[in-house]
Design a protein that fits this description.
alpha/beta, Rossmann fold, 4-stranded antiparallel β-sheet, 10 strands, 37% helix
């Protein structure tokens, strides 16, 4: 169940609610333009998309196809030029910075190609970071022990029980991505966005990361959206989409 405070941060939209109650996340007419000198780059072109609760969906496409831009917009890491984004039936497209940050922290998790781990913090500390950011100082003091136990549990589930005190420089690429996956799940998000999660990994390690994603989907009911250029990984998702030139095309 979504955290009440985060739900309150998602203010009701003056526009009609999303029409698909079974879609946890939905966008309509989503576009993103970038200006390069006097040239306008239409990276995303009026995209409609639905992500269904409890599924693993993948979007495949070449570099520049628009798939990462779409993920960043859906995850409130960027703002669209046009269109709307609905989360659990409410419009979250133009939340203020503070409200958007709460949704990202409490409702969404993120896994990136480059891991984005804090280099001076241990694996355990990196995994705990979303909880530390989201909690107030008093809540952190009350719940630090419980939150640490959750981080230890997550790292154990991804096979890193013996690496809790290792900093990222002492971990392999696959181990760093396991830490990143555990971190993404720390606040028990409803949706986990994975942006090229296997892009820096060899094929064997990439398969191991997908197996973990599949396990968290099946065992915890987490919804995953994966964008990738790797057809092998994309095809293993429950639903497979393809993007070219900022639009969805037949896969």
């Amino acid at each position: 169940m979504a955290d009440q405070a985060a739900t309150e941060a998602v203010s009701p939209s003056p526009k009609p609610e999303a029409q698909s109650p079974d879609a946890i996340l939905e966008c309509t007419g989503l576009s993103r333009d970038f200006q390069s000198g006097e040239t306008t780059l239409h990276v995303l072109r009026s995209v409609d998309f639905k992500l269904y609760e409890g599924e693993i969906a993948s979007i495949v496409g070449s570099s520049g196809a628009g798939k990462s831009t779409l993920l960043h917009l859906l995850g409130l890491l960027d703002t669209p030029t046009e269109g709307d984004i609905f989360y659990r039936g409410r419009n979250i497209t133009r939340l203020g910075q503070e409200a958007a940050a709460k949704v990202r922290n409490r409702e969404f998790g993120f896994v990136f190609q480059s891991f984005h781990l804090l280099p001076d913090f241990t694996a355990l500390e990196n995994v705990m970071m979303p909880a530390r950011i989201g909690a107030g100082s008093m809540q952190w003091m009350r719940e630090a022990g419980k939150l640490e136990a959750r981080a230890v549990e997550l790292l154990t589930r991804v096979g890193l029980a013996e690496r809790l005190t290792h900093v990222p420089s002492r971990l392999s690429g696959g181990e760093r991505q396991r830490v990143a996956l555990a971190r993404a799940l720390m606040n028990e998000p409803a949706v986990v966005f994975c942006d090229e999660p296997t892009g820096n990994l060899d094929s064997k390690t990439a398969d191991e990361i997908f197996v973990l994603i599949d396990q968290f989907n099946k065992e915890l009911g987490k919804t995953f959206l994966i964008v990738t250029h790797d057809e092998h990984i994309a095809q293993r998702a429950q639903r497979h989409l393809k993007m070219t030139d900022g639009r969805f095309v037949p896969a």
